[in-house]
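This part of the workshop introduces the protein records we will be handling. An example says more than a description, so a record of this kind follows:
>
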Amino acid sequence: MTLEEQLLPHKDLAPLYDQAVWLYVYRTFQRDEADRAAERISLRFGVTSWPQLLLVDPLKLTVTTRAGRTLPTFKEAFTRARLAEAIPAKAQAGSRKALADAERIAIELEAATDAVFAGKLLQNKAVADIVVRTRALQLVGEHDPTWIARRAKTLLDTPSDPFRYLVCKVLADHPDPAANDALEALVREPTNSLNPNVLRIRAVQALAASGDIGSVEVIAPHATSGAFFNGLTGIAVDALAAIGKRREKARDLVRETLLRAYPALPEDGDARKLRACTALAKRVHKALDSKLPFPETYDAKSRDVLMKEPK
């Protein structure tokens, strides 16, 4: 259901219109002033994919419910998320001031160049606003990426997907083995995430640049899962190949793992699944730098031959 054209204007939602303050946020990704303002809202509520329907506590500015994208799920979520009582005027004023202060600092950081100041903000436990912290992290990542690697564990424990995506991107662009343990922990268990599969993808991409033989064991289950519709599978395959090229001690384990990564064919013979399965098999074949030619038709017999390729 298209949100703007079908769900939100639906006649069955009309009784709800006056029961909440509605905020429509649209990102153009043009990085102009309007888009940066929309991005700050997205950062505040941990939005990393669109469209989303969120119900927010107006005092704490926290998401109370992530409603579905259908009329029944949205109506049910709206009913459950109603405030039990009115918000006192003093509390409203305090919330508005806190938001205004955070917005002011975040906007200042968007134009700042002082990475040292930004780093101090990140280390200051009293600065809890996630938008301020994300803008500070962006500034540090641009000017002092090694600062992030040294504090990877603490930063990756932050319960915000956009924040952790950014940490992983900095570590992928500026690899540092000091961050491997924290990245591996995130691949094992992407806790407090609204999009754990993508968070794993970002961590695996970072490990592709800095990982070692220990990282191979962490990434291996995702490379060998055979989940050919999951983007994580192919990215895990590529990451293993990258680690194998950089780390001589990891090459045998990488090769053994990649040979097991050739996906089994779909049992139902569905053509769409077969195409995706074959595409993943070709990706594994390339990652192995295989001396065997890839078969004209990827089937159970050819898969068995590829998996038994001699050294």
